[in-house]
Amino acid sequence: MQAPDILALGEAMVEFMEIPEGAPRRLYQQGFGGDTSNTIIAAARQGARTGYITAVGGDAFGQDLTALWQAEGVATSAVKVSPRDPTGVYFVKPHASGRSFSYARRGSAASLYRPEDLPEDLIGRAKVLHSSALSQAISPTMRAAVRRAAELAKSSGTLFSYDTNLRLNLWSLEEAKTAIEDILPLADIIFPSDDEAELLTGLSHPDALLDHYLGYGARVVALKRGAEGVIVATPDARFAVPAAPSAPVDSTGAGDSFAGAFLAYYVETGDAALAGQRAARVAAGTVSGFGAVDPIPRRDQILA
Question: What percentage of the chain has pLDDT greater than the value 70?
Fold first, then answer.
């Protein structure tokens, strides 16, 4: 079996989405989420050969997540099953812009993931390894695993892709700044969001933010700007990609699906501008439906 071209490392969770206009008591629909899981599923739906690195519990939720990845064509050979630890869960209240999360993830199997659990051979054979600041935030051991994985990628010629996904309910802004600034010099592809980047850097103008992240040595930076689209920058050029037409109902997972689609098309074509344009269509499709995974468009829809 061929090794995946694109790997992602982080935590996946079971999602409970509040149903709009439900009964007086809250009603929820079960789905799946977790930023890096969303990203790798988006990449798989664009036709990339993918795999996921994580840990799940030996519970029904862990089994459901594993079945999901397998159904999506995401390789699960690097998914560790921890029989005595739970799979993380989160509850989300959908909004057309913004989002409201409540987490039940303390002590989850993925939060106990360690550097020694990493599949070093798979990382060395991949074209891209993707992770995120959110993955770093869930625990000290996962933070160390993300750092070690980035080092392994760098030493083997695998591109390291990194989303500065910021969740201040998991750690302080100062902790986030320290961890993010520590790992950025290892990143080849960086996905910051403008609002989070402003908090992390104190900068506000898009060009200043792009200069900041390119200054770490990245070959591509894709600055996500919500309804204003994306600016894709390399050391030699910048491309403004407008947001694709959409009918937003839930923004959950839009940035994740953009990153996954971008990686899939960038690996396929080597064209950062084209990858950005196609990924913008994927993000637009994602916000037009409820949940982090179900509405992510597939390749045939994007290329039609």
Answer: 96
DSSP 74: E
Token pair for 246: 């959409």
Alpha carbon 61 to chain centroid, angstroms: 20
Paired tokens of 71: 């159904």
Domain span holding position 49: 6-303
Better-predicted residue by pLDDT, 187 or 106: 187
Catalytic, 256? Answer yes
Choose among 208, 242, 254, 193: nearest CA to 33: 254
Task: Specify if 251 maps to a domain.
Answer: yes
Catalytic residue among 59, 207, 256, 271: 256
Mean pLDDT of the 132-155 span: 98
In the chain, the N- to C-terminal Cα span, in Å, equals: 30
The dihedral sign for the CA sequence 47, 231, 188, 117: negative
Q: Is residue 207 part of a domain?
A: yes
Q: How far apart are CA 145 and CA 164, in angstroms?
A: 16
CA distance 163 to 145: 16
Q: How confident is the model over 117-138, as a mean pLDDT?
A: 97
What token pair was written down for 208? 């200043």
